[in-house]
Automatic annotation (TrEMBL):
Family: Belongs to the small GTPase superfamily. Rab family.
Name by which UniProt lists this protein: Uncharacterized protein
Keywords, alphabetical: GTP-binding, Nucleotide-binding
Species in which this protein is naturally found: Gossypium darwinii
Pfam families (alphabetical): Ras
Matches recorded under SUPFAM superfamilies: P-loop containing nucleoside triphosphate hydrolases
InterPro entries: P-loop_NTPase, Rab, Small_GTPase
Chief location category: membrane
Amino acid sequence: MLGSSSSSSKGGGNNNCDYSFKILLIGDSGVGKSSLLVTFISNFVHDLSPTIAGQERFGTLTSSYYRGAHGIILVYDVTRRETFTNLSEVWAKEVELYSTNQECIKVLVGNKVDRDSERAVTQEEGMALAQQLKCSFLECSARTRANVHQCFKDLVLKILEVPTLLEKGSTAVKKQILQQKQVRKPPESNACCFQ
């Protein structure tokens, strides 16, 4: 059903990032949400079986996933028309119903363009739906890595342009860094010194 991820702008590790954003990848099972994420964060392309979060029977947990999201990537499989139809009939309605962040940035992604001979949804249809949903649009392939990094980069750059999202992202990181510093602080000892 949906997946969640934090994406950081700038910096290499947890302690060096300037911002932390909650980004959701939503869409039907099997559209490649996990594959897009894994392709983005690693140098390897993996064949992934459906994740637990990708199973529709976990639908009762959805509202908590949407809470506080900075960005949402709505994913469909260009070779399966029903996944495209479900974005406008199911997923977009869930975003509207459960998203607590009104300025949340949305991107519509048609995945699996490497299978063009099996295409069931045209690029023009994707662009029209993106216009209807008031979001940007990209076609990607997790298998060939086409446009995957561009998708996440565009999303983060658009989040950085919205002052309220920017502040919420930086606040979360500040809290996380403070918590990490408290954990690393050496425990105080009540033991006496021996001479």
